[in-house]
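A reminder from the course coordinator: this example appears on the midterm review sheet, so study it carefully.

Given structure:
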């Protein structure tokens, strides 16, 4: 009777009152869970930020140590010593091989250059000595680019004879000696002709 008088005084039905009571309970429960979920999220977020800041600080310290210390032992402090030794020795052997190859290539190029300079210098020295002795080259277009004929004291000599012209004066020459100059094709006929005339 008491509940009935209360409902009639408030102009509420029992079903409407029950519906409002359950709805308020539902909202309170959901709100409490949401608040606890929000607090949990805030806690997780704060923990993540703290961990992220710590990892950033560690990375910054590692970078500072790397930039300040150039030694292999301090640069790779977390690696085993065996790996560091292998890495350093392999790098050293590679650098030594490169230096050795560069040294050999330098010596080879210097040797080739010295040989070329020697050959060119010998040719130029030979030309200068011939000019100093009075031997002149004859530019004959029919002979091509190379010059085989030389002029010395009014006479024309071949390339193979011109260097030995000065030695001719040291021969024992008599006044009745006969000099025969012949070519391979007509040499025998010319020698026979000279012999027949000399008799």
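Designed residues:
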């Amino acid at each position: 009777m008491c509940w009935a008088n209360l409902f009639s005084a408030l102009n509420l039905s029992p079903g409407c009152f029950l519906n409002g009571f359950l709805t308020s309970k539902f909202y309170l429960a959901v709100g409490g869970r949401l608040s606890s979920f929000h607090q949990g999220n805030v806690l997780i977020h704060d923990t993540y930020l703290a961990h992220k800041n710590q990892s950033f600080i560690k990375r910054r310290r590692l970078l500072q140590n790397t930039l300040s210390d150039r030694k292999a032992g301090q640069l790779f402090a977390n690696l085993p010593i065996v790996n560091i030794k292998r890495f350093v020795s392999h790098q050293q052997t590679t650098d030594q091989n490169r230096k050795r190859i560069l040294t050999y290539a330098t010596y080879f190029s210097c040797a080739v250059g010295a040989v070329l300079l020697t050959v060119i210098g010998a040719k130029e020295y030979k030309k200068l000595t011939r000019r100093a002795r009075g031997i002149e080259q004859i530019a004959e277009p029919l002979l091509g680019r190379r010059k085989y004929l030389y002029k010395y004291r009014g006479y024309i000599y071949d390339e193979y004879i011109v260097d030995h012209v000065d030695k001719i004066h040291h021969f024992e020459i008599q006044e009745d000696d006969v000099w025969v100059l012949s070519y391979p094709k007509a040499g025998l006929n010319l020698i026979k002709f000279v012999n027949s005339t000399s008799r």
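The beta strands are 136-137, 149-152, 155-158. Residues 14-68 form the longest helix (55 residues).
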